[in-house]
Design goal:
The protein is extended. Helices cover about 55% and strands about 5% of the residues. It is mostly helical and about 130 residues long.
């Protein structure tokens, strides 16, 4: 589990585990960004079947599926979840993931520096002399 994100990184419950196969079937039909399925659509799908689903649970199940490679090339965007069939587009998606990792690392590094600084140290703002 990741500290501070226990809800989405703790192991799947028995009920969530039972949903995985249904997600896999749905995602295999989402070939290409134009056929993406959104969290809202997934929630609605489960609601129609009399089941509860929320965004946190969806992200948790998607993470489980991606980590284990149960749906190859499963990507996500503002359009929803989809299987990227085009190699160049998948490479662009991987580049986007690296950019996000780099951004998170920058925040980590800045906080690490702040941890090692005295509490009363001043923030140094960039100054441009006009």
């Amino acid at each position: 589990m990741i500290n501070g994100f226990e809800n989405i990184t703790k192991p799947l419950t028995v009920i969530e585990s039972a949903q995985v196969k249904h997600f896999v079937v749905i995602f295999h039909k989402c070939k290409g960004k134009e056929l993406a399925v959104t969290s809202t659509q997934l929630i609605h799908h489960w609601k129609q079947q009399g089941r509860k689903m929320n965004g946190v649970t969806i992200r948790k199940i998607v993470h489980y599926i991606r980590e284990r490679g149960l749906v190859r090339r499963l990507c996500a965007s503002d359009n929803g979840y989809y299987v990227e069939m085009d190699d160049e587009k998948l490479k662009a998606y991987l580049h986007s993931l690296r950019q996000r990792m780099s951004s998170i690392k920058k925040v980590h590094d800045a906080l690490q520096i702040q941890l090692n600084e005295p509490e009363d140290s001043q923030i140094k703002l960039p100054y441009k002399d006009d």
